[in-house]
Amino acid sequence: MLNDYLPILMQALIALGFAATSLGLSVLLGKRGSNRGAKDTVYECGMVAIGTGAPRFSVKFYMVAMLFVLFDIEVVFLYPWAVQFKELMSANQDAFWSVAAFATVLAVAYVYALKKGALSWNE
Question: Which string of b and e fits 20-45 if b means at least 16 CB within 10 Å?
């Protein structure tokens, strides 16, 4: 059984060896960078940079984005079921109850997010 995994082990060792060799050679043979003040400043179309590079966003933006992705992916899981709805219902009624349970979990999660204030912008 070990012979079955030998090619995978060899490939992993070769990949790790190549990565380590490449990094080591770049450290040994590469040029050293200099830290001069003018080189490390932000270049903005020839103009002197004013302020920070990126404004700070509220956590609310990220919470809404994560909730959108979460619920969007869960709706994607409903799509194949909806496409095969007639065939599933003619074969077995359990398909309906499993998706009903899934939709119930989605609804409970949505109500929980609303109660926690994850979607309110006024706070």
Answer: eeeeeeeeeeeeeeeeeeeeeeeeee
What CATH code is assigned to 59-116?
A: 1.20.58.1610
Mean pLDDT for the chain overall: 85
CA distance 88 to 108: 25
Token pair in block for residue 20: 């380590």
Render pLDDT for 12-59 as a digit per residue (tens, 0 to 9): 999 999 999 999 999 999 888 777 776 666 666 777 667 666 777 778
Instruction: Tell me the CB-side half-sphere exposure of residue 99, using CA atoms within 13 A.
Output: 17
Distance CA(93)–CA(100), nearest Å, equals: 11
Indicate the domain borders of the chain: 59-116
Q: How many whole angstroms separate alpha carbon 77 and alpha carbon 83?
A: 11
Q: Does the pTM of the predicted model rise above 0.70?
A: no
Residues in Cβ contact with 42 at an 8 Å cutoff, skipping those fewer than 6 apart: 49, 53
Alpha helices in 38-93 (DSSP H): 59-83, 85-91
